Predict the 3D structure of the following.
Amino acid sequence: MPKSRIRKKADYTPPAASKQAANIKLTNRGWVAPVMLALFLIGLAWIVVFYVSDTQLPIEAFGNWNIVVGFGFIAAGFGVSTQWK
């Protein structure tokens, strides 16, 4: 049986110097970490104060919805964390 020819691949040629990749500018995101941590801590503090004060604080009229408010702050912290680069 005859042997098939092996095709030779072309050597790698780098792209021309005139086509340089565009520099990606990252915006200053220094505010993200402090805001994220602040939201986490506010949410945690809200829930802890609610339980420690025997449902009298932070806002008595909210009742058990204070837990939802606390978790809302925590969820907002996770939302802000998506902006961290």
About this structure: Residues 40 and 74 are 5 Å apart (CA to CA). The helical segments are 32-52, 65-81. The radius of gyration is 28 Å. Residues 32-52 form the longest helix (21 residues).
